[in-house]
Amino acid sequence: MLHTKIICTIGPASDSAEMLEMMADAGMNVVRLNFSHGTHDSHREIVKKVRTLNLKNREFPVSILLDTKGPEIRTGDQHLKLITGSKIQVVSDPDLRDEKHLFVDYPYLTEQLGQGNHLLLDSGLVKLEVLEKSGNSLKCRVLDGGMITPKRHVNLPGISVKLPGITISDRKDLKFALEEDVDAVALSFIRNRETVLEVRQMFRE
Predict the structure, then answer these.
(1) What are 151-180's pLDDT values in tens digits?
(2) Is residue 1 part of a domain?
(3) What are phi and psi for residue 66, nearest 5 degrees?
């Protein structure tokens, strides 16, 4: 018997009862609900389908894992093509959105970043290096270029970001996890033990 479990993230292409059953028959052990996408209603429907599937006297019931969105930094609504070797101004001012400025929704950009720091955009597909900072702007060189579409993730390697461990949205999603009695939760972008203890306390209450 294999002890390694197969976890499958469920989305629009795989959320039908028929597809869930076929995936379970193929060896899926855990359904992952990605709360970065979808709504409580759409996720609740998947939970119902999995519960119904498990009523069919399956030898190995399918478990349900809720994955929180977590605290995050994102770009704005811009479409920008960043060319390797070019320069771009990264700003936290939402009014500065043009081909020369890239908006990032993190107010502590210039407070925490300086020359030599890096920004990874879209899960690291695009990489920027800070050359200098001036006022509320970071002048950056594009090390790895690419197309930036709206609401891309931004990572700041080596920076202890000033974001809450558990966001208001996460709290609502964790309440959903309790109400629907899911089997496990995955906490995204956790940075310290205090956040884990906070979630444990929420579950006790």
Answers:
(1) 999 999 999 899 998 999 999 999 999 999
(2) no
(3) -100, 125
